[in-house]
Amino acid sequence: MTPTHFSFTTAFILGLSGVAFHRTHLLSALLCLEGMMLSLFIALSLWSLQMGATNFTPAPMMLLAFSACEASAGLALLVATARTHGTDRLQNLNLLQC
User: Fold this and answer.
1) Residue 27 CA to chain centroid, in angstroms?
2) Rounded distance between C-alpha atoms, residue 26 and residue 87, angstroms
C-alpha cells in the first residue's frame, strides 16, 4: 500500500468514524460527510491520472458535482431543522413526529 493510498483511506475511515460516533450535531455530521467526499474526490482524481485512461477523467468531476448537490441539500435541511426545532442537535429530531 502506497503512502498516498494509505492517507486517503485513513481520511475516509476517519470521516466515516466521525459520522458513526459523533452524532450530536447535524453540522458535524455534514462536515464529516464532506471530508469523506473530498478524500474520495482526490483519490479518484489521482487514480484516473495514474491509470492514464481518458475514459475515467469525467468521473472525479461528476463526483464533485454530486458532492456539491449533497452539501446544498444538507445545508437546506440544517437551516430547516434549525428554524423548526431551534437547534441542530440530532437527539431532538424524531422521524415519527414529522
Assistant:
1) 11
2) 9
Is the whole-model pTM more than 0.85? no
Contact criterion met (CB below 8 Å) for 75 and 30: yes
96: CB partners within 8 A, 6+ apart = none
Domain interval for residue 48: 1-86
Q: Grid coordinates representing 22?
A: 459523533
Does 13 reside within a domain? yes
Domains contained in the chain, number: 1
User: In which residue are the cell numbers 492517507 written?
Assistant: 7
CATH code at 58?
Answer: 1.10.287.3510
Q: What is the pLDDT of residues 48-66, one digit of tens each?
A: 888 887 888 888 999 999 9
Strand partners, 89: 25
